[in-house]
Design goal:
heterodimer, A: 7-stranded mixed β-sheet, about 0% helix, about 50% strand, B: mainly beta, 6-stranded mixed β-sheet, 11 strands, globular
């Protein structure tokens, strides 16, 4: 499979816990994005990487959120001290025309 | 602020009929537009794109029309099939890295 891969696909966590999602983009893509999507809404931009450099962060990305792409390949999105409002699908995408992975569903209970 | 929106939240069509999903955009600086299909529980899937120097582009069973005068985008699906049932998003890009999505239109295909 040469598409965008995300792990885990589903995560249930208790409020206050930390969670981390991993994204493996399409191998030749320099651009990598994280989006968040809630039920009934379109994806909302969170952050963007060009290779290992994080070039843009949305105001949606509070200080509890951190994203990294240390070697310009895979990326991680960490949410610290999760809140119920963080429950959403976190989508990773890569490419100039963005191609999405299948998403990581987060449920905070 | 600038936004991408959709005229109708849901669309119901008979199998075999053609579907037309509409989208309005407000950012006149947008020069690249994409349609995505999202099935339940899955990530958005790229369908077709169009740049602002074009007004029509065709794919397999799909056609995207762009009217820059009225800032309107549409996706036409020919001979709609049950497998086309999904939520469809239009998205716009102003030439940078940020692609902005609308809220989506749910397409129901009746057998």
């Amino acid at each position: 499979d040469t598409g965008v891969s995300q792990d885990p696909r589903h995560k249930i966590t208790k409020r206050g816990q930390n969670v981390t999602f991993r994204c493996d983009p399409i191998s030749e893509h320099n651009r990598l994005y994280w989006y968040r999507q809630t039920l009934g809404q379109g994806p909302e931009f969170l952050t963007y990487f060009q290779n290992e450099a994080q070039l843009e962060k949305s105001r949606l990305l509070s200080d509890r959120f951190s994203a990294e792409r240390p070697k310009g390949s895979f990326s991680t999105l960490e949410i610290q001290r999760t809140e119920q409002g963080d429950s959403a699908m976190y989508l990773c995408a890569s490419g100039n025309t963005i191609y999405f992975g299948e998403g990581s569903w987060l449920t905070v209970v | 602020g600038e936004s991408v929106g959709l005229h109708l939240p849901t669309l119901s069509v008979q199998e075999g009929d053609n579907s037309i999903i509409n989208c309005a955009y407000s950012n006149s600086a947008s020069d690249y537009f994409i349609w995505y299909k999202q099935e339940s529980g899955k990530g958005p899937q790229f369908i077709i794109d169009i740049r602002s120097n074009m007004d029509k582009r065709q794919g397999q069973r799909v056609t995207v029309l762009l009217n820059k005068t009225v800032k309107h985008l549409s996706l036409q699906i020919a001979a709609t099939q049950p497998g086309d049932s999904a939520v469809y998003f239009c998205a716009e890009n102003t030439g940078g890295f940020k692609t902005i999505f609308g809220a989506g239109t749910r397409l129901f295909v009746k057998a």
